Amino acid sequence: MEFMIFTEPQQGATYSDLLRVAQATEAAGLNGFFRSDHYLSMGGSGLPGPTDAWTTLSALAVQTKGIALGTLVTSATFRLPGPLAIAVAQADVMSGGRIELGLGAGWFEAEHTGYGIPFPPVRERFERLAEQLEIITGLWATPEGETFSFDGAHYTVVNSPGLPKPTRKIPVIIGGNGRRRTPALAARYATEFNMPFSDPDTAVAQFDRVARACDDIGRDPSEIKRSLVHTLVIGRTSAEVARRAEQLSRSPEDLADNPLAGTPAEIVDRLGRWREKTGISRVYLQVLDLDDLDQIDLVVNEIVPHLG
After folding, report:
1. What local confidence, expressed as pLDDT, does residue 256 receive?
2. Segment 263-299, tens digit of pLDDT
3. CA separation for the pair 132, 201 (Å, rounded)
4. What is the DSSP string of the chain?
5. Distance CA 272, CA 270 (A)
6. Rounded average pLDDT over 234-242
7. Rounded distance, CA 192 to CA 189, Å?
8. Through-space distance between the first and last CA atoms of the chain, rounded to whole angstroms
9. Is the predicted pLDDT of residue 255 greater than 90, yes or no?
10. Measuring CA to CA, how many Å separate 59 from each of 18, 20, 109, 248, 291?
11. What is the dihedral angle through the alpha carbons of 16, 22, 23, 25, rounded to the nearest 10 degrees?
12. Residue-by-residue DSSP string for 37-89
């Protein structure tokens, strides 16, 4: 099982904060550092303000050496597909082939209106996501010396050289609870499907929908890695768990379905049962207190030896 640290910088973090956590992630021997792609806090001041996801990851690409780096997830409403393909490919080259692209339709209207970004209705957002996935992967896959064109309802690409090229086929992460469009897009484009803040039964049902969508187009469902994300609330004792939960304004009810909440022994047990039931092979540990790196040490010393 792979273990990735996942951060929410829009809640309040500088680049220096993210660099410190990413380097601690690497030094601890975990598999990757991921960040959200948001421009507005979802509670609190968010000071000193948002950091751009792909600017951040490009810098981390040259200030780390071996961990995977990526977004969970970039919003298709934020960037045009051609420039996004260029930015992600360049970051991948800068990292030596460690970038992964999580891409979604976008959902947080306030950050769009707050920064002058159009926010179309949900159907159009999914249409744009589908076209972006086709364009971005098409640009990367176009052989050097050939060109890529696309004529869609929302984007048109004419005779693009599809440059620069990434170092390899960049993993694409798709996730969420949509019952029809999301599994269909995952079957066509994803190398990983992520279930965010879910319970096992909901995750199994959605993973099954992705598998059926793969069957519909003749793709082997086992080609798509299964993953989950939950908030990390770990402590050596129940009292320490409760303290960290209180600091995050989490109630006991909030932690009931969270496999990453509890003492190390409890988390090992819950994650083991999750893996057995759902087939997950990657876990994103959402770390909300970026000053509390003791949590990372606990994961490395008490969780990874049993499940990693």
Report:
1. 85
2. 999 999 999 999 999 999 999 999 999 999 999 999 9
3. 31
4. -EEEEEE-GGGT--HHHHHHHHHHHHHHT-SEEEE---SS-SSS--TT----HHHHHHHHHHH-SSSEEEES-EETTTS-HHHHHHHHHHHHHHHTS-EEEEEE----HHHHHHTT-----HHHHHHHHHHHHHHHHHHHHSPTT--EEEE-SS-EEEEE---SPPSS---EEEE---SSHHHHHHHHH-SEEEEES--HHHHHHHHHHHHHHHHHHT--GGGSEEEEEEE-EE-SSHHHHHHHHHHTT--HHHHTT-TTEE-HHHHHHHHHHHHHHH---EEEEEE--TT-THHHHHIIIIIHHHH-
5. 5
6. 95
7. 9
8. 5
9. no
10. 10, 12, 28, 29, 20
11. 150
12. --SS-SSS--TT----HHHHHHHHHHH-SSSEEEES-EETTTS-HHHHHHHHH
Spatial contact of 229 and 72, defined as CB atoms under 8 Å apart:
yes
The CA-CA-CA angle for residues 234, 236, 239, to 5°, reads 85
Query: Residue 20 has which token pair?
Result: 């410190």
CB 110 within 8 A of CB 40: yes
How far is residue 132 from each of residues 107, 121, 153, 162, 168, measured CA to CA in Å?
Answer: 16, 16, 11, 14, 19
Residue 173's identity, in one-letter code, is: I
Map tokens 């050289």 to a residue. 161
